[in-house]
Amino acid sequence: MPHTDSIPAPWTDHPVRPLGDREFEQIRDLARRTFGLDLRDGKQDLVTARLQRLVRAGGFHSYHEYYRHILSDSTGESLLALIDALATNHTAFLREAAHFDFLRQHVMPELARRPSVDIWSAACSTGEEVWTLILLLRDALPSSKLRVIGSDISRKALATAARAVYPAERVGVLPPAWRDIGFVKERGQPDLYSVKTSIRTLATFRRLNLIEPVPWPIQFPVIFCRNVMIYFDPPTQAKVIANLNESLEPGGYLFVGHAESFSGIRHALEYVRPAVYKKPIGKRGGSCQKS
Ligand SMILES: C[S@@+](CC[C@H](N)C(=O)[O-])C[C@H]1O[C@@H](n2cnc3c(N)ncnc32)[C@H](O)[C@@H]1O
Q1: Whose Cα sits closest to atom 19 in ligand 1?
Q2: Which sequence positions are flagged as catalytic?
Q3: Following CA atoms 81, 85, 87, 89 in sequence, which dihedral angle do they give, to the nearest 10 degrees?
């Protein structure tokens, strides 16, 4: 009996012309305009690897045909699928742990007297950052009403975040006490852990494109926006920092990824320590521009 994996699916057996330079330029331009992704020279192989499944599945014979289809698809579904395929969703629980230490030691005492605390995890990917924040907040601010808003552009990543079920080895990096408070084993699947309802109810997920103006009037005392600006070019980074600045309370903190630097970008935030910035108190905080 043949192994079913060896039978080609109907859509895999037609030839697709390799991604040419002009087609790469078209997709690069589309990705930059729609969600800020800066596909630098030499990323052709990456684009091919991430898009060829969609090109084949759609029955297209070239990347140009596929590109034309995205432009003509008035539902926007094809563009969403392109974004899902091109976005890098790598994340982890307790990623860049120094941020959580700083948050607990220096920021939580400032928030301790508030009856309610809302934090924004911008570009939260599959949710690990959101659950880590909630577990820390619950520990540090047991009597405050808590909410973490997780946003991302990728519909697929957000669906995983909202499902909130993770392999045991990913959850295993958390302190055992947090694991017990936050997770239960999935019934019949010992290698999977599910976020408990008491924790889930403290999170809200929302699809949001960081290169567009923020759609809410809320200002947060803390925003995490980590490991996404690294994919943007400097003018887009400046625009995103300006948007985030508008959403920070005076005195509020912005956490970015440790590999991300604001050097060369003029902005209204104070440097606190590597990958942590603060909005000065008493200033409206103007826009950020490349210097
Ligand atoms: C590498 S993950 C970072 C996840 C998490 N913040 C962390 O540091 O572990 C980057 C995320 O940014 C999202 N992203 C990329 N461009 C975006 C945009 N324009 N607006 C919102 N999210 C975006 C991707 O979908 C992806 O989930």
Answers
A1: 35
A2: 50, 152
A3: 110
The range of the structural domain enclosing residue 267 comes to 97-290
Regarding whether 193 and 157 lie in a shared domain, the answer is: yes
Contact 14, 59 (CB under 8 A): yes
**Range 77-89 burial, b when 16+ CB lie within 10 A, else e:** ebbbbbbbbbbee
Residue 91 one-letter amino acid: T
- Mark 244-266 as b/e (b = at least 16 C-beta within 10 Å): bbebbeeebbbbbbeebebeebe
Identify whether residues 149 and 12 lie together within a single domain: no
DSSP state of 12: G
Quick: pLDDT tens for 239-270: 999 999 999 999 999 999 999 988 889 899 99
Checking DSSP bridges between strand 183-186 and strand 276-278, what pairing results, if any?
unpaired
Mean pLDDT, residues 75-92: 97
pTM to 2 decimals? 0.92
What's the structural domain count of the chain?
A: 2
Q: Is the CB of 236 under 6 A from ligand 1?
A: no
Indicate which residue's Cα is closest to atom 9 of ligand 1. 91
Q: Quote the CA–CA distance of 120 and 249 in Å, as a whole number.
A: 12
Dihedral angle of Cα 277, 273, 259, 207, to the nearest 10 degrees: -30
Torsion angle of C-alpha atoms 82, 87, 88, 90, degrees rounded to 10: -100
Is 249 found in the same domain as 128?
A: yes
Report whether pLDDT(184) > 90: yes
